Amino acid sequence: MKKIISLFFLLTLTIFIQTMAQDDIRSKKLKEQHVSPKVIKSNDSWKKNLSPLQFEVSRNKGTERPYTGQYFDFYEKGNYYCSNCGALLFNSESKFKSGCGWPSFSDVANIKSINIVTDESFGMVRTEISCSNCEAHLGHVFEDGPPPTGLRYCINSVSLRFTPISEQKEKP
Question: Which of 47, 67, 145, 146 has the highest CB neighbour number within 10 Å of its CB?
Fold first, then answer.
């Protein structure tokens, strides 16, 4: 009985230490992430810089039709930035094939680059995500994604701009 209690205590202690280490790593990662300065423009200015579909989706909280966006079935290595302001949002490592018709990611590249808001439009309750730098509507997040996050960030392609890994600037 003492061996069982000792093993249980040792297992519990090991799990606790691993959890604390993971929390510490996540905390350091969040502190290292930065956000670009806020981008504030008039609707007329956004209209001049965005395509009609980009404006409708990102500024008016619209959505592109499923299976029509350029990134829904696209899996090159690189990063995805906000098409409105250029903030880093997602990377290809977290992109997965969800079958929903829109690009899907299991995690964000920089948690500080998104806002999370309850969306009660169209008689549904969903979780909307937008760019924290320019408030562009990106899409929604659902709790039916793969491990380890269990999340599916369902994003409109027109809200994104992809840059291949080969074109990424190296930090000094």
Answer: 145
Q: Active site includes 82? A: no
Which residue range is the domain that position 70 belongs to? 43-167
Q: CATH no. for residue 104?
A: 2.170.150.20
Mean per-residue pLDDT for 16-35? 48
Instruction: Summarize the confidence of residues 55-83 as an average pLDDT.
Output: 96
What pTM was computed for the model? 0.75
Q: Is 98 inside a domain boundary?
A: yes
**How many angstroms separate the Cα of 11 from the Cα of each of 5, 21, 33, 155?**
10, 15, 33, 40
Could you give the CA distance from residue 137 to residue 68 in angstroms, rounded to a whole number?
18
For 99-132, how does the pLDDT look when each residue is reduced to its tens digit (9 = 90+)? Answer: 999 999 999 998 999 999 988 888 888 899 999 9
Q: Is 155 part of any domain?
A: yes
Q: Given 82, 131, 134, 154, which residue is catalytic?
A: 154
Measured CA to CA, the distance from residue 45 to residue 166 in angstroms comes to 32
Give me the torsion for CA of 142, 144, 148, 152, rounded to 10°.
-40
In a domain, 10, yes or no: no
